[in-house]
User: What shape does this take?
Amino acid sequence: MQCDDRNENMATTPELQKRNEAVVVGDRVEVIVKSRARVKAYGEVFTPLRMVNRMLDLVKPELETGPGFVDKTFFEPSAGDGNFLTAILKRKFAAIEKRYTPAVRPKESLFALASIYGIELLEDNHQAAQAAMLGEFVKFHKRNGIKCSPRTNLFRSANHLVSTNILQGNSLTGIDPKGNPIKFSWWHRVSNEPAIVQREVFTLASLRHENAGTLDFDVHPTYAPSRIDHVHKEVRADV
Assistant: This one.
């Protein structure tokens, strides 16, 4: 069925239109609602890709063209299955391809991955979001002819960054499924060492407005500076 201009030529099948569970855009089906029960229990409604891209267009300089765009951080407190996260990553990767030589793309792609954070409440969505992020990373390197098999440091570091940056938990309470505080890691480049990263752990709670400017780095394990493609080795500085 062809819809009017208000829906931007977006078609739906009669069943999907009635249930409002998915939309068909061109040859792509986008799930908007997995089930009415999930909407009722969790308020779960997925953002259509066209809306994701419109919103990201508003921050294009920070995301794609401005100075230091690779390291600009983005945080999605309700990550769903990763549609916002992967859209951000794709744009950063496209900009890296345009602005960086092939030799430094692996390093810059890891820093781009390290700059994106997300929290998702539901386990199935969380797993899907992590898989989508890692999948985009692998596709980027295959497209550039760079080895990124599970045995490479490149893949292992990417997998580690995804597992530490895309977490399951409740972003309102700051608690993970085991009842512990949600902890993130800030990955920042070491001055004058463009391939070296310093990891600093902090809790989500310390990001809240009443604690602004007082991230609790000093109460967590400390890590030695590391090559960005060796972060999976987790070399500690306090042992």
